[in-house]
Each structure stands twice: as C-alpha cells, then as structure tokens.
Backbone:
C-alpha cells in the first residue's frame, strides 16, 4: 500500500500514526508528520470537503476567520496527484485553489452525508422554531401563571414533538404561511 507523509501544522494533539511531534520553546506546536494510506487520504479529503461545505458554502465573500480552514484544505489537497486521485481534483493556479472534477462530484460520498444532515436539520429547526413561537404565545396568554424552568422545558418539548410527528406524517402538506400583501408605491 502506498503511504505518504503530510506535514501538518497542528494546534492540538492528534491520534494516529505519527513519526514526530514536539513542542516549540514558546509553548506552541511544531510540525507533525502523519502517514496515510491512499484510502485514509481519500477519507480525510471527504471529511475536509464536508467540513468545507459547512464552513464556506454560504459565504458570498471569503472571510478572514475561514482562512485557516482553507489553508489546511489546500495543504492536504496538494497531495492529490501523489495519492493517485488526479481524476477527482484539479488545481487552478490562477486562483490558487483545488476543485473537484465532475467525475468526483458524481460519486462523492460526502454529499450523501451533507444532504441527510441538511434534511434532518431542516425538519428539526422548523419544529423547534414553530414550537418556540407557540410556547411564547402560550406564555403571553398565561401571564401570571408562570411555569418553573423544568415545566417550561417539558412544555416546549411537548410542542416540538407534536410538530415533529406532524412533519413526519405529512411533510409540508399541512403548512400554510400567510403573507400580508405589500402595498405598492407609485
């Protein structure tokens, strides 16, 4: 099996097969050499693509706080030819960036995980937001009959569960949004 050493700047301990790890005089971390098989490299790349989706997929413009993630991504992706996945990625020197090829995008396993996560998150967030809205409306009606913190959590959970059950059975079929007409200025 092919193995390669990727020097990765680390800020915390990492489990894995490491040749060397050391702390610098200023208490920071030095460099660590980690060996990956081709299969492990491909798994790491898929994890980075998944993380990159979460971190940067909704960015309209690059943000300073995401730069370290992009730099690490580039460092790992720089080995794509050495690891025999040149059909999966290409390097665009004018942009200094690595991109997935259409071949890789068609069979990329990380997208299945992302789609499942986004679907579950949508329903969970929708149920929670509607339950929070309804709970607040109930609290306004109760006025002086306040619930203690545990009772509040139980009630919020009950309302959330009702929405989750409804969405599991009917999806959005029974959801209606009332939009007030916007007056047009001439």
Residues:
């Amino acid at each position: 099996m092919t193995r390669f050493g990727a020097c990765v700047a680390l800020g915390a301990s990492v489990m894995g097969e490491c040749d060397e790890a050391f702390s610098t005089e200023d208490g920071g971390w030095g460099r660590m050499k980690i060996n990956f098989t081709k299969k492990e490299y491909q798994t790491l790349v898929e994890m980075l693509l998944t993380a990159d989706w979460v971190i940067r997929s909704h960015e309209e413009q690059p943000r300073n706080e995401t730069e370290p993630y992009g730099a690490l991504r580039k460092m790992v992706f720089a080995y794509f030819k050495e690891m025999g996945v040149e059909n999966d990625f290409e390097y665009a020197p004018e942009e200094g960036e690595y991109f997935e090829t259409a071949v890789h995008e068609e069979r990329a396993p990380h997208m299945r995980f992302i789609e499942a996560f986004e679907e579950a998150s949508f329903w969970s967030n929708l149920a929670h937001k509607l339950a929070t809205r309804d709970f607040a409306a109930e609290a306004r009606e109760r006025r002086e009959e306040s619930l203690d913190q545990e009772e509040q959590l139980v009630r919020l959970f009950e309302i959330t569960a009702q929405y989750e059950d409804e969405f599991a059975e009917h999806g959005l079929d029974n959801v209606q949004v009332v939009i007030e007409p916007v007056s047009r200025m001439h």
Notes: The chain has two domains: 3-107, 110-170.
